[in-house]
Write a structure and sequence with these properties.
alpha/beta, seven-stranded mixed sheet, two-stranded antiparallel ribbon, globular
Length: 209
C-alpha cells in the first residue's frame, strides 16, 4: 500500500453500519492462545491480520506500568499484551461502537483482569493519562487526518522514555516521517513479510543549569 492509497473508511468511525455477520477466531500469538468474537464492520473481521502478528511479536514490553492500544479493533493486540504481562495495566481504545462491544466481550472471554476498554475519539477521554507504551496497527483507511493526530497525541500521553510503536505495510513513508517530526526520532525495529514496525521514544531535552 502506497501513501496515495490511504482513503476514508467506516472501520474507524463513530457510526459504522450495523454488523451483518459474526465470526469466531482462534489464534496463538507469542505463546498466548486467544478466542475472539468478531463481526462485519471492523478491520480484519475473519482472521488476525499479519501486520498485527508482526507488531505483537516485535514488542519489547515493560514488566510494569501502563500500555495503550489505540484503535484496538476487537482487541487482539491489547488482550495479548495483557495476557503476556499480568502486572501491566492495558487500556484498549476505539471510536467504533461495534469494536468496543466486541473487545469487551473478548476481554471477558479470555479472562483478562488487567484491561479496561474505553470508547473514545483518539485521546479525547484520556486527558491527563500517561502511558509507558502506546501501540497501534493504525487505521490506514481512516486517512492521515486521523493517523497524524494519533501520532501527535501520543507524544503528550507518553511518560519520559515511553514509546510509540506502530506497524505499517511497506511503501508507506509519510507516517514514519511524521513520527520523526513529532518525536525527533524514529527507528525500524522489525521487518517481516512486507510489514515494518516503527518506534519513536519520547525524550526530554536535558535541563540547563
Amino acid at each position: 500500500m502506497r501513501d496515495n492509497d490511504i482513503y476514508e473508511s467506516h472501520y474507524f468511525s463513530s457510526s459504522p453500519a450495523p454488523p451483518k455477520r459474526s465470526f469466531f477466531i482462534r489464534a496463538n500469538i507469542r505463546g498466548q492462545f486467544l478466542e475472539l468474537i468478531s463481526s462485519s464492520g471492523v478491520f480484519s473481521k475473519d482472521k488476525v491480520d499479519l501486520g498485527t502478528v508482526v507488531l505483537i511479536e516485535s514488542l519489547d514490553l515493560p514488566e510494569r506500568g501502563e500500555v495503550l492500544d489505540m484503535g484496538c479493533g476487537y482487541g487482539v493486540v491489547g488482550i495479548t499484551i495483557a495476557k503476556l504481562c499480568p502486572r501491566l495495566k492495558v487500556t484498549l481504545v476505539d471510536v467504533n461502537p461495534v469494536a468496543i462491544k466486541l473487545v469487551r466481550e473478548n476481554v471477558e472471554r479470555n479472562s483478562v483482569q488487567n484491561a479496561e476498554v474505553i470508547r473514545s475519539d483518539l485521546y479525547a477521554l484520556l486527558e491527563g493519562r500517561l502511558f509507558d507504551l502506546i501501540v497501534s496497527n493504525p487505521p490506514l483507511a481512516a486517512g492521515y487526518r486521523t493517523i497524524f493526530p494519533m501520532i501527535e497525541g501520543a507524544f503528550d500521553h507518553l511518560k519520559e522514555g515511553g514509546s510509540l510503536q506502530i506497524v505499517l505495510r511497506k511503501g508507506i513513508n509519510r507516517i514514519p516521517a511524521k513520527m520523526h517530526e513529532v518525536f525527533k526520532n524514529v527507528e525500524t525495529v522489525s521487518r517481516k513479510s512486507g510489514y515494518r514496525v516503527f518506534r519513536s521514544v519520547r525524550k526530554y531535552a536535558p535541563e540547563k543549569g
